[in-house]
Fold each of these.
Amino acid sequence: MDTPSAFGAPIDHAFFERSPSEVAPDLLGRVLASTSGGVLTAGAIVEAEAYLGADDPGSHASTKGVTKRNVVMYGPPGTVYVYFTYGNHHMVNLVCGPQGEAGAVLIRALEPVEGIEAMARRRSGRPLRELANGPGKLAEALGIDLSDNGSLLNVGRLSLFEGEPTSSDRIDLSGRIGLSAGHELLLRYYDSESAFLSSGRPGPLRPKRRAQRGTSR
């Protein structure tokens, strides 16, 4: 399937041979594209979070070693790491750093640029600003699922293109979103002028409210 030349050239896997904290801000403005279902959909990255190795309490690598879940994080740079969470959301990450050392960047939000009608169908007709303004939303909009886990960018259904890198004066950072530990680390990078950022707020994961006993329904 042909890719619009406006996306620029594909990004080489060597781009990811760095720490996730270096790669994450450099991803802003790059175009993530999918050919899921034989339909080209794509968006410019406007928000990304870095996840490090065993010393990062918010990372899936913060375990006693390699597990069935996190093994992809130790793979070659440029590998796609997809996991399923909260019972209904897929999250897409891009593996960074030397092979054998865990690290990845979670793509948190995109500005849709291609295949918007298909993205809207997958997102049940949501308005443009809500098609990909969150990690689970963008995975749904691009048709990303566990079949993409462990694939290589520019080889499988997902590709990354140069796009128009976000200028440094527009890049801001904060703590991460939706974590019970490691949320305070300043590893979330985002385009401060984008209207397509996720709606979550940095800080500790809020506990689910339990129904009070003895109350009528």
Amino acid sequence: MKLLEQKVAIITGSASGIGKATALLFAENGAKVVVSDINENHGNKVVEEIKAMRGESAFFKADSASPEENEALVRFALQQFGKLDIAVNNAGIGGPLSPTGEYPLEGWKKTIDINLSGVFYGLRYQIPAMLESGGSIINVASILGQAGTKMSPAYVAAKHGVVGLTKAAALEYADKNIRINSVGPGYIKTPLIMNTLDETARNALVELHPIGRLGESEEIAELILWLASSKSSFVTGAYYPADGGYLAQ
């Protein structure tokens, strides 16, 4: 039997990167996957890939910064597949790069809205849908949910907030058969990094990881799969880094 046989999962930000890798891995392991993203074209391509492997999937366009669209996403999953067992709150942006004393106000608002409020909105509507039968929620934080870095105050604040929010919610629902955990990827070879940074900048990021390379989206997806499955049945309220040794320094 596959790890997620007959489970229904929502994955936000799943048109590319970690979200896409997770969607494909979940489907391989038997889950019915609701792919959600603001990029409708790429999102539908992920659905096509899942269906090509004889999996079940559907796309729903949603902006994680909108509470109404988070609610509609959960409602869509229930209408499409009849239940919700797993949610991965993965959607996020890097935000502007600037010192705190000069940080653009709109950049702050947008980064917090997507990276932190978006996770809260997800939990706000995912949890009620899981109360009857239980479930597992994985929030994608970052190594910068545990450490700081210069020039990204909004991102660091949001990701620290995701880790704290995860712990608070996990305690509230631990006795209701809903497990809530967070993961902390190091720097991963996603389009965000590969398409926006030059080779010099990418090499500088590699140097930050004792393992000597950037991570792959599929490596993070494997950790998320474990947390989504019954293999991690005694795990809740935890933060799991997957960072090539970044935080051990």
Amino acid sequence: MTPYVQYEYLNVSATADNAPLLLDCYENFGWTQDERHFSSDTGRTVTLHLKRDRKIINRMELTRLQRNFEGCLQEIKLLERSRKQLASIWAAVLAIIGTAFMAGAVFAVTNDPPLYPLMVLLAVPGFAGWVLPYFIYHRLFARQHRKVQPLIDAKYQEIDQLCEKGHALL
């Protein structure tokens, strides 16, 4: 007969590519995957079902380290989002300005009599405003990636240290 063990449970939602990292890290805080529950898969999101002995030694310290780990994950998510955000905003603003110029060109050509020189004058920046956002997006994304990647790497290093501390407490 096996001894009675009271567990606490945790459900974690993550992207499918992040799930192995989360499983490895949560194991360092005393969590194991609950074999009675299967991971719920809804497209790109996976739900991990974890359990841990309530009477684990150093539970408070492990919980504190786990909270720091989860905070690092949130910061990484925000940093990764910031790479796209600035580039997307600038590309969208430039595309809207290009659309405004193109609308002016349409109004110029539909005027009675048509104003062809004004239409050409407005259509050139309009087309440029439709083509340039692609290049602006990629250039700003690459610049932001170079700026943010060392910060993301530092957060992963911090996660590694937290996991080492948690593993040492088990």
Amino acid sequence: MKTELTPYQARVIGCLLEKEVTTPDQYPLSLNSLRGAINQKSNRDPVMNLDEVQVQQVVDELMKRHLISDRAGYGGGRVTKYKHRFCNTEFGAFKLSERELAIVCVLLLRGAQTPGELRSRTNRLCDFREVGEVEAVLDEMMKREDGPLVAKLPREPGRREARYVHLFGTDTQPELSEPAESMPVASAADTAEPGRLAALEREVASLRREIERLQDALGIERETLQ
């Protein structure tokens, strides 16, 4: 896959893909709207908390790579707004069907997913009537002539389904400039037991994903429980 994205870049592209479909009247997005989409607590994994300076830094990186375009005056306003050039544009590297775009979007926003999770979490972007349809599209995406877009991970113990990941980059987050006043102050526990803190963070993330899976299975609107 030629397009390599950092996790922050993947989040920005995923947000632009999502909002183009779900809120077309508000697309392209201003920097403030894009920041809100990036830091959204629902339908995101992991949840991020980037400030405006950090978001602008990522946007500038993507602008230099011609994966985002900007223009002042969209909709008659003076605020600069941003739109993706990632796919399905005259400048995009490749074309995606509605279902392929929905899958890529969710994988960019939420990381590895099972076909069942993709079926429920793409419902605002496209329509999958059953999990088998998701698996068929995933299979096609792994066999594209221009290179695979997704990969299937080995099935984990205790899981009925294997998870799939996008092939647009790594899971390692790059360092972003951070204002001094927002830098966290390290406590004695932070410096003495970094391994313990990292383990707790992983456990919290795992519990959050499990809660979201249960909410999806029960048909509960996740936003109401945040």
